[in-house]
Every structure is written in structure tokens, then in C-alpha cells.
Specification:
With 160 residues, the protein is mostly helical. The protein folds into two domains: 2-111, no CATH class; 114-160, no CATH class. The protein has six helices and four strands, in the order αααββααββα. The strands form two sheets. A two-stranded antiparallel ribbon has the order 1-2. The chain has a two-stranded antiparallel sheet with strand order 3-4. A hairpin with a 5-residue loop joins strand 1 (69-73) and strand 2. The longest helix is centred in the first third of the chain and has 23 residues, at 25-47. The chain is globular, with a radius of gyration of 20 Å. It starts with a helix and ends with a helix.
């Protein structure tokens, strides 16, 4: 549950000090199921093959109301974001599903979806680079692997 909480906080779905009462294995399974449906939808968009069952499930989850944000005053007088009530699993899934719907129905955002060109890398990312010519999910990881492989191929050719 620590990793699920870290993801929920890191993605901005919940503020860091939000209690997640009831979070457990069922939450993790539900988030993974939604992730799989979104992956089917995104891959289907990239490959030109619809995923009607995944679309139906994501749409069903998006119908729920997401957690309601509110502003609270901290001790130092600044305003901070909190949630009106402790979020349940359904509300958090709704927020993620709505984000997926927004992404996939926005032509500009959808056109920025790219599949990493790294060998056996399954990551799909949004290419927000200036020229929209990004090739890898991470230049430091997949890009570096590609550059090392290219160097090794050239070195092998030079030896023969």
C-alpha cells in the first residue's frame, strides 16, 4: 500500500497528508485493472484497433464523481489544497478514468502519444518536446541503451 499511496500523492490525485481509509489489496487490484483498460485503449489508438470493452469500463468508472478539492489555511497563513472528504477507491478511479477520457478525446494531446523506440520497452509517453521528435521514454535509460548498442555495433564492424 505504500507504493499505491506514493503513486496517488505523486500523481497529484491526493495531497500528501490525506487519509486513505479502507485502502488495501482491493484498491490495488482496482487501480491495476483500470491501468490495464487504459493501456488497451491507448495501444488501440496507436495501433488503430479499437478496444470496446476497455472503453466501456473506463467510461463507466469516469461517471463517478472524483474527490472534491477544497482550500484550507495552513498555520503560516498560506492556502493549501486538501480534499473535502476522505476519498474512496471509486472516487480516485473516477479521477484517473476522467483524465484518460480527457487525454484520448483531445486531438492535440492524443497526437502527442508515442511508443518508446527502446528495445522491448513497453512505455507510452506524451511527446511534449519542441520538435515532437522524441524517440524514447527516457533519454537517460532507453536512449542511453540505444546509443551504447549502436556504438557496440560500430565497434564490432570496425573489428571485422
Amino acid at each position: 500500500m505504500v507504493r499505491l499511496r506514493a503513486w496517488l500523492v505523486g500523481s497529484g490525485l491526493v495531497p500528501a497528508d490525506t487519509p486513505l481509509r479502507g485502502a488495501g489489496p482491493a484498491w490495488l487490484a482496482a487501480v491495476r485493472e483500470l491501468r490495464d483498460h487504459i493501456e488497451q485503449l491507448v495501444c488501440g489508438e496507436l495501433d488503430g484497433r479499437p478496444a470496446p470493452a476497455a472503453l466501456e469500463r473506463v467510461n463507466a468508472l469516469a461517471r463517478c464523481a472524483p474527490p472534491a478539492p477544497c482550500a484550507i489555511r495552513r498555520a503560516d497563513g498560506t492556502l493549501d489544497r486538501a480534499l473535502h472528504a476522505d476519498p474512496g477507491c471509486r472516487e480516485l478511479l473516477a479521477a484517473v478514468a476522467r483524465d484518460a477520457v480527457e487525454l484520448l478525446t483531445d486531438p492535440a494531446a492524443r497526437s502527442c502519444l508515442r511508443r518508446c523506440e527502446g528495445d522491448s520497452c513497453p512505455i507510452i509517453y506524451l511527446d511534449t518536446s519542441r520538435g515532437r521528435r522524441r524517440r524514447w521514454c527516457s533519454s537517460e535509460v532507453c536512449g542511453n541503451r540505444e546509443r551504447v548498442a549502436r556504438h557496440r555495433r560500430r565497434a564490432a564492424l570496425a573489428r571485422t
